[in-house]
Amino acid sequence: MQRKGEEKTMIKKAFAIGLALTMSVTSPMPVMADENMETQESVFDDSGDMDSIEEENSSEEQNGVNEFSSGDVNDEFEQDEQTDSEQEWSSGEGEDTFSATSDVSDFDYAIDGVTGTATIKGYNGTDSEVYIPQMVEGYIVTSVGGFEGNSTVTKVIVPDGVTEIQKYCFYNCMNLEEVDLPDSITSLGECCFEECEALSKVNIPHGLREIGRRAFCKTTSLKSALIIPEGVKSIEDSTFFKCGAEEIELPSSITFIGTDSFYCSKLKSIIIPEKVKEVGYDVFRGCENLELVDIRNKMYISVGTFSGCTNLKSLVCRNKDIAFETSLYEKNLPSQTCIYGYSDSNAYKYAKENGNSFMAIDVPTNVKCNKTDATTVKLTWNSISKSAQYKIYRSMSENGQYSVISTTKDTQYVDSGLDKNSKYYYKICATYNTGSTDIDGMESEIVVGNLNGKPDAPKLKEVQTYGNNALKITWKKVPGVTGYRIYRKTSEKGKFTTLDTVKNVSSYTDKKAVGGKTYFYTVRAYTKVGSKIIWGDYDINGLSAKSQRQFSEAYLTSGLHYNSSFDFTGDGINDKFYTTYTMSGKSNILTVYINDKKSGTIKVTDAAGGKFRMELCTLSNNKYVFLSIRYESNDNDAEYMHKLYKCKTGKMSSILDVHKALKIGSMQSSTIEKVYSNGIAFHAGGIMSHGIRSERWTYVMKNGKLTFSKKRKI
């Protein structure tokens, strides 16, 4: 059902001063209510009996009638009849008034009788300050759109109950300065604020869960900090492209960041959360004011990631596996960028090779917490070179809220005046001074000040099959304990017996299990105080699993390497197995085994002698084998062979020669870049007439065939 707005014809009239003093004006306001206004709340008392409590939502006896009074001889006001969607506010200060219209005649809207909701589809009014109606014809408004290209509106107030700002809603509203969004908003649509160049103030709702691509693209005047709430999982391509915000805070729930997401000239600092699994290209390209980036995930930093970030002072790499693309012609980072990271990380290697300064942010190690008297514990840890100071965090529960209780330049701290019957949880981190700001290093493992002495029961995670016959049990570490004792039983009603005692680890592999049997396991923590051992609690039920032989391994045998065999072994589909071996002018046979069964043989011929590097991976539950061989002759010429084989017992049939399939002329080399359950991505490169050419190729398994998916020049 569609409604088209009509032009306003009503104007405000003034009451006589005498009438304003002697009477008040009332106007009926319809109240939308369900026939049954009663709600019931069920509660359980300590005895487990259920009581029923009735609550009645009552309204005023006037049946929804609001009363207005002039209250002041200087206020001359007449209340015209209003619909349930018309509201006006007056500041009461003469001419200095704020008026936001919600007259439904100014809006195009649609009503959904099934869901009982309304959607704003357009605005036809001329007001600069607009209040979106909360209800139309008794239906609550849940979705707003239709302001695209409006040059009059400067401020919009969206009422509670709206859950969606539609895509392109405010696109190119060139004079829009402020938008007030309620916490009921869950979705900001694609390009909803794009090219709102005057927009300087907008709040991010706490209930937001989805932000469309380019939502804040080219909001160059935006000044307010953008704090993205927990629950949002992705930042799509160009979401903040040329956004004016100096601060954008990402929640820990973020898992994806798209290409050109933060091409923000005014952005000064940002943290990339540790749960982020994928990051697009050129994420921070053109961020000329960016000074600090704190990366906590396993990220791939290409030469374009920080292109144009001329003022980048500090790059904090809190993951050892952060990788850097190498290029002969362009560096990943400006020369003045100081890299903070682990001493044995890729970040350290990059800094050393490219002349960037490096400062270690290693985790404080050997953290210990010892009870010194009934109400005091002493914390100690190993020193970290060049750390400015250490922060001591404390909590009353392991997973609770930690707060900084002290800072120190020493490698010890005494915490006194504690409750003798309680447990206290601690962690330490080093803080480094960069000149303009402090950077916190990685937090240590949690240790416990256990004043009552008894360790907690370890929280068991799972028991799973591991290799041939073996079973592996894992648990969550208990802070501050010395070690664990592993117990096992062979029946649910049996008794646990000691299997082994281990140090402070979080898993144990039972290699004495017999295939086909079910075993039950539990774990008990202990603490050693002097010569005394204090045992903790344990899960009396434990966890169980059936031992069985694992048939998910792929391996090769050959006599190529000094006439001795070698194996490629692993635990599953996505594993890559590789080695390097030497040949001496002979033809040799590689025998491929999958699931402990012979799948076929591959003949490798080397007339000149040289070195081979071989990679093997399995796809689609071991139905296919991808084999990559890089041959380097004695004169250092390199050749490549990449083939996909279909596996059957005793036979391997080649179904794809990757080099021939590429058909890229002078591409001379390629390497496996990524292996996943149904496909392969690899990097191919060569020398062209115009210089070096490099491309990324992806093949995907479809209907039993590995077919070309996409390529990208890099």
Description:
With 714 residues, this protein is mainly β. Among the domains are: 1-32 and 61-124, no CATH class; 368-450, Sandwich (Immunoglobulin-like), CATH 2.60.40; 459-546, Immunoglobulins (Immunoglobulin-like), CATH 2.60.40; 554-713, no CATH class. The strands form 15 sheets. Strands 1, 6, 7, 9, 10, 12, 14 and 16 form an eight-stranded mixed sheet that branches. Strands 21-23-25-27-28 form a five-stranded parallel sheet, covered by helices on one side. A hairpin with a 4-residue loop joins strand 50 (624-633) and strand 51 (638-648). The chain is globular and about 80 Å long.
Please outline the helices and strands.
Elements: E1 2-3, H1 17-22, E2 25-28, E3 38-44, E4 50-56, E5 65-68, E6 107-112, E7 117-123, E8 129-131, E9 135-136, E10 139-144, E11 155-157, E12 164-165, E13 178-180, E14 187-188, E15 201-202, E16 210-211, E17 226-227, E18 234-235, E19 248-249, E20 256-257, E21 269-272, E22 278-279, E23 292-295, E24 300-301, E25 314-317, E26 323-324, E27 338-341, H2 346-354, E28 358-360, E29 368-373, E30 376-380, E31 389-395, E32 403-408, E33 412-415, E34 423-433, E35 438-440, E36 447-450, E37 459-465, E38 471-476, E39 483-489, E40 497-502, E41 507-510, E42 518-529, E43 532-538, E44 543-546, E45 554-557, E46 576-583, E47 587-594, E48 597-605, E49 610-619, E50 624-633, E51 638-648, E52 651-657, H3 658-662, E53 667-676, E54 679-688, E55 691-702, E56 705-713
Parallel strand pairs: 7-10, 8-11, 10-12, 11-13, 12-14, 13-15, 14-16, 17-19, 18-20, 20-22, 21-23, 23-25, 24-26, 25-27, 27-28
Antiparallel strand pairs: 1-6, 2-5, 3-4, 6-7, 9-10, 29-30, 30-33, 31-32, 31-34, 34-35, 34-36, 37-38, 38-41, 39-40, 39-42, 42-43, 42-44, 45-47, 46-49, 47-48, 49-50, 50-51, 51-52, 53-54, 54-55, 55-56
